[in-house]
Specification:
This protein is an all-alpha fold. α1 packs across α7 and α5 packs antiparallel against α6. The relative contact order is 0.21.
Amino acid sequence: LGKRSLLAVARTPLARGVFVTYFCVLIGQRMVLPFLALYVEELNGPLMIATTVGLVAGAYGLAAAIGSTTAGVIGDRVGYRTVLVGAIVLIAVCNVLAAAAPSLLTFGIVYAFLGIGFATAASMLFTTLATGLGPDVRAPVLNLALVPLYVSGILVSLLATQLLSVTDGDIRPLWLVSALFVSLALIPALRLPRGRAARAVPTTGPFEA
């Protein structure tokens, strides 16, 4: 199944486009994630740090749940690609704003919107895969759908470590690098089919076999 899945991804333009987009978005998400507690401490000090981080992370998760559900409804109406592109732009902008956050409150709000962006992007990408692939390749491709998650986790850890050694431990530049990688996701995302649940996904296009 592993070999069949790899061949299915390699031979299916839509799968390759979604995987590349997802990979870039994940790098933008995971670049700063290991250092979230340190960034919160930098903004708010060490007092009740675990509670504060829990609140920030909780707001992120709650916003992601509510926002992505709403985005799904919109995606069914206007197309998955449109919502995906909007989510990518939102993530990139929020990463820049997070780097410039003057206070914990500001960062918490920005981070909540990041949750909306990431959850929305992921849901639109997986929906595009599930609805846009033919039955002969759908299962093999979806079998590897989380590979970008694992690969990005390894690569981003190495990259973040190198960047922090250059910035003398300053976390803020990592947000800007994250914004850059997320912005790169727009290149393959804009070439994906529009996708709508109300009609069949086109069988022709830049990312269609």
